[in-house]
Amino acid sequence: MIVHVLACDYDGTVADHGHVSRDMAATLARVRESGRKLVLVTGRVLPDLRHVCPTVDEMFDAVVAENGAVLYFPARREVKVLGDAPEPALVDQLRRREVPHDLGSSLIATLAPFAEESIAAIREAGVERTLVFNKGALMLLPGGVTKATGLEAWLTAMGYSPHNVVGIGDGENDHAFLAIAELSVAVGDAVPALRERADYVTAEHGSHGARRFIEDHVLTDIAALAPGLVRHRVNLGDRADGTPVRVPVHGTRLLVVGPSASGKSTLTGLLVERLVETGRSVCLLDPEGDYQSLSDLEGMLVLGGKSDHGLPTADELEQFLRRPRTSLVLNLSSMSRPDKVEYGALVFAKIAAARSATGLPHWLLVDEAHHLLPADGSPGAEALKAVRDPLCVITLSVDDLARDLHATPNVLASTDLDAFDATLRALRAERPDRPPAAPIGGPPFARGEAAIAWLDDSESGATRFTVARRRVEHRRHVRKYTEGELPPDRSFYFRGPAGALNLRAANLVRFCELADGVDPDTWAFHLRHGDYSRWLREMIKDPELATEMAGLESNLALPPAASRREALAAIRRRYAV
Predict the structure, then answer these.
(1) CA 224, 190, 215: angle at the middle one, nearest 5?
(2) Which of 330, 503, 507, 562 is most solvent-facing, going by the fewest CB within 10 Å?
(3) Distance from C-alpha of 255 to C-alpha of 273, rounded to nearest angstrom
């Protein structure tokens, strides 16, 4: 479900001439009955609001009053004042200038024609107040207080994200809170500037337009509108003609396929970066420890592996998942495969519960999904096959994935041309109601190139594209290669020019330890034979570091002690070993 909170202005939106009609009250009741929260966001002060709407406590889950300066929780009759009280000096200056005004807990309300006198009073009193117009009304508010700050205070207190909010308004003072909503709606007779900026403008005016929108779109979870919200798409790269390749943040169920070291993790990491940059929360299951570098992202927690931060328990996981500004990478690399499957099933269950309650996390990503959702079936596959919330599944081949999940993706991406064309044909063959597959063909992908196709035909055709550059450098299998143990055939062996040694480095930590201790002739022997760059490229799968090492290997003028020092510094700088 996308919409978990409906935030509405009062006058001119859900109320006409100060009163909520029976029809509107019934529609708002249906919103709460659907499990959604209903928040009133108004410039009125609470006593006045209760006078014109005696049932406000029964009608709304929360009230943001005084244009964001007061937050009211009806269920517990709790009032929180979020702004400073009216300053006596300012009130005195308004009286001296004969400016009619009403005082709230924080707000000072007057009329628009008295704007100049109000500014003069503020200047004379030497206080900080912001003038906010609302059609014929004028509000003097503490600096920084808006309807948006008040709504955000409630969202934070209750564990909801603005990305699960629909906002509806009509006046100048509604700009701020509509700007933070995932979908902003202006009623048909809203002020022109608000109509221009809104995502959707109702055909009817006032409460009639608001009620029709709620019934047609909020109660249907904006199903008809979400695909058209172009501003809520993330850019994965560019086609050859320079046009961007974007995927919607709502309703996308992405399957990424390709062989090892083809760039799947780079593409996945890019997607995570883009989502987190928009303020969305993600949960990424990482069976092989590929995503440690994502800890550099704001709000990202990387847990598990061999770090000091172990995997969360069921109770801890539930708490983490309900934090709107927190994203998780769960590193399962230290677990056996059966344990990974079992823990993955736990995570999927907890995510389903959290999404049902608050819409969080916004995206679930499962890397190396054949570990957690194998072809022979798993409890996790059963839980995910009917998911319609955003999902990204990354695997070597669709044949390695549980059959139950083959019908789930609606977008396919791949970093390998053969894998893309084969998967596209296979998925189309399983969906006879869809047009036949149309592989893109052509030369093999260059490094950094990928392809994408929309399986539900929401966009036509398949296309190649160049993957955008990541902002957080991806270091593949960081934990695995620094602390794990590579098999003997992938380890590095210091043997020396006469083959007198047999020192095995099964990871980068051990490599650095041994390289520090071997004699200069042994170091130089492997350097001149290009053994270091070959191992880094073929076994560690780090072409950038391998290229840097190859530069040292080709510099014949560099003494062995200097090349060893620079080589180890490059490894330690890149992998923090």
Answers:
(1) 35
(2) 562
(3) 18
The encoded tokens of residue 337 equal 């495969």
Domains of the chain: 1-76+145-232 (3.40.50.1000), 83-143 (3.90.1070), 248-467 (3.40.50.300), 485-575 (no CATH)
Compute CA distances 443 → 416, 418, 449, whole Å: 11, 10, 11
Tell me the residue type at 233.
R
Q: What is the mean pLDDT of residues 121-135?
A: 90
State yes or no: pLDDT of 10 exceeds 70: yes
Residues 6+ positions from 293 with CB-CB distance below 8 Å: 269, 472, 473, 474, 475, 478
Q: Quick one: CA dihedral 408, 411, 416, 419, positive or negative?
A: positive
Q: What is the pTM of this model?
A: 0.80
Contact 67, 107 (CB under 8 A): yes
Which residues does 527 contact at the CB level (< 8 Å), separation at least 6? 552, 553, 560, 563, 567
Q: What is the pLDDT of residues 382-421, one digit of tens each?
A: 778 777 899 999 999 999 888 888 888 999 999 999 999 8
Determine the Cα–Cα distance for residues 306 and 266; give it in Å rounded to an integer. 22
Q: What is the average per-residue pLDDT within 483-489? A: 76
- Which contiguous run of DSSP H or E holds residue 283? strand 282-286
Beta-bridge partner residues of 401: 374
Segment 498-505 shows an average pLDDT of: 87
**What is residue 102's three-state secondary structure?**
strand
Alpha helices in 126-205 (DSSP H): 147-158, 175-180, 192-197
Neighbours of 484 (CB within 10 A): 19
Beta strands in 92-159 (DSSP E): 102-103, 108-111, 129-134, 137-142
Q: Which two tokens stand for residue 577?
A: 């070993």
Per the prediction, the chain carries an average pLDDT of 90
Q: pLDDT digits over 109-119, tens only? A: 999 999 999 99
The answer to whether the CB of 431 falls within 8 A of the CB of 454 is: no
Quote the pLDDT of residue 482. Answer: 64
Q: How many CA atoms lie within 13 A of 130 on its CB side?
A: 14
In 3D, which of 385, 368, 386, 380 has the Cα closest to residue 257? Answer: 368
Residue 310 DSSP one-character state: P
Return the half-sphere exposure (C-beta side, CA atoms, 13 A cut-off) of residue 172: 10
pLDDT of residue 476: 43
121 dihedral zone (left: phi>0; alpha: psi -120 to 50; beta): alpha
Residue 200 has pLDDT above 50, yes or no: yes
Q: E strands along 264-405, which residues?
A: 282-286, 300-304, 327-331, 363-366, 391-395
Q: Is the pLDDT of residue 472 over 70?
A: no
